[in-house]
Design a protein that fits this description.
The chain is of the alpha/beta class and about 300 residues long. The chain has eight helices and ten strands.
Length: about 300
């Protein structure tokens, strides 16, 4: 019997699915990468593998060392997977603003967690900045390496494969890319890879309507986990984006529920925001065109939240 693949080799090459029922007649087709098919159920596995392997190769992360990060949970789970697979430890700055499923998944992979309390579970600029500061403190310990995703220039490279896969799986038939922004790595990594094939490809960034800082509005609180930092990401390149779209928390949650019921795609609120925005662009482009976006992660991570508790 041949040697099996390493668990990290299961990252990437995810299916591309076409939305069948929620796209109205007269719109472009919408295709989405099913990133919940990655080992932890999230696109962040791609980022985590790239930045950890590069840090180790460069000598920044010593053998048996500890990976440190501030996280809303998704990146933490992915870093914990990669660290566990490669013999490293993890320590994360986390908060009660994010789902219990994310906490328990990080703990399952052996992570240590330091909590930064939120204001009534709201995601705000102050919370994110306090988590960043806490991660910085933790990383001062010997043998600890701070992934620092916001400032890590290897981050976007982790998502180049996504762009290449979209191009291959659509046979080059992609007319727009739509995706939410947190660190901006996934949007930029995908779009740069796709623009190697089509330099004129329109790219649409998506952010929470309640905290539309990319659009020049003041920061606010929202409940779309994993996006909308409340400040401009350090590695955000607005010149690479065609247009910025905003989606409200309520609309993102409602779309997450619709996706499960009408498309049998079980995903979280950032995916809901992606689809709301993708539908707008699909309506603009019309028949015969293709809009690409992401199913960012699995809805299993949000069962303890209110997203799937509403009947409508």
């Amino acid at each position: 019997m041949g040697q099996g693949q390493h668990i990290l080799d299961a990252i990437g090459n995810t299916p591309l699915v076409q939305l069948r029922r929620i796209v109205p007649p007269g719109s472009a087709r919408i295709v989405a990468k099913l990133e919940s098919a990655n080992p932890t159920g999230s696109m962040k596995d791609r980022l985590a593998r790239t930045i950890v392997e590069r840090a180790a190769a460069a000598g920044h992360l010593p053998p048996g060392g500890t990976v440190v990060e501030y996280t809303a949970g998704t990146t933490g789970i992915s870093l914990a997977l990669v660290a566990s697979a490669l013999g490293y430890k993890t320590h994360f700055a986390f908060s009660d603003a994010f789902s219990d499923e994310k906490r328990f998944a990080m703990l399952a992979y052996g992570a240590a967690i330091t909590d930064v309390p939120s204001d009534n579970k709201k995601i705000t600029k102050d919370l994110i900045q306090a988590m960043i500061a806490k991660a910085g403190q933790i990383s001062q310990q010997p043998g600890h390496w701070w992934a620092d995703q916001l400032n890590n220039t290897d981050g976007a490279d982790g998502y180049a494969g996504l762009g290449d896969e979209i191009w291959q799986q659509t046979a080059g038939q992609v007319d727009a890319l739509v995706h939410t922004v947190s660190t901006a790595h996934s949007l930029h990594g995908m779009s740069r890879a796709l623009r190697q094939h089509n330099p004129m490809l329109p790219v649409y960034a998506v952010e929470p309507a309640e905290s539309a800082v990319l659009s020049g509005q003041p920061p606010g609180s929202h409940k779309i986990e994993g996006i909308g930092l409340g400040f401009l990401p350090p590695l955000w390149h607005p010149e690479e984006v065609t247009e910025i779209l905003t989606v409200s928390t309520d609309d993102a949650k409602a779309m997450a529920r619709r996706l499960a019921r009408e498309e049998a795609i079980f995903a979280g609120t950032s995916t809901g925001a992606n689809i709301v925005a993708a539908l707008r662009i699909a309506a603009r482009l019309g028949p015969g065109k293709t809009v690409a976006t992401l199913i960012v992660d699995s809805g299993l991570r949000y069962l303890s939240t209110d997203v799937f508790r509403s009947p409508a």
